[in-house]
Amino acid sequence: MEIRAFELTDESAVIALWMRCGLTQPWNDPKKDIERKLCVQPHLFLVSIIGQEIVATVMAGYEGHRGWINYLAVAPQYQRQGIGKLMMLEAEQLLVEVGCPKINLQVRTTNSEVMKFYQHLGYVVDDVISLGKRLESDESRSDVMLSD
């Protein structure tokens, strides 16, 4: 298994993986999310490869106060084999190297299995409420609400 930075030629395989893992939502266009990430700290967007297949991704970021994790995905046939943990350890190490003191991430409240995964890695539930405000809609329909 190799972990490396995302390359442009990875795009279609990454989006397909995200779709298989249920990470895509109508209000988050994965192609646009990739384009945006490539403009900001692209070295923190990682893929894992076995043979010629992209089997995992993680998108990390640091804005000077907190680090963030997005799009952690492991292909279903490779889950529960430690790949997600390795991806997180690599992302955490890269964030440490840029001076990041704490990582935040968001998990949908309905995703109890993923909550267990992160708790096993030492993440705890912070006593906060996550708020969001969409500044740009990725959806092509104009009749759709603009919030998550």
TrEMBL record:
Key words of the record: Acyltransferase, Ribonucleoprotein, Ribosomal protein, Transferase
Gene Ontology CC entries for this record: ribosome
SUPFAM superfamilies xref list: Acyl-CoA N-acyltransferases (Nat) (SSF55729)
Keyword RNA-binding: no
Residues in the signal sequence: none
Pfam families in the record: Acetyltransf_1
InterPro entries linked: Acyl_CoA_acyltransferase, Bact_Acetyltransf, GNAT_dom
Entry keyword Amino-acid biosynthesis: no
Domain N-acetyltransferase: 1-148
Single GO term (MF): acyltransferase activity, transferring groups other than amino-acyl groups
NCBIfam families per the UniProt record, alphabetical: PRK03624.1 (NF002959)
Protein name stated in the entry: Ribosomal protein S18 acetylase RimI and related acetyltransferases
Species the sequence originates in: Nostoc flagelliforme CCNUN1
Record lineage: Bacteria, Bacillati, Cyanobacteriota, Cyanophyceae, Nostocales
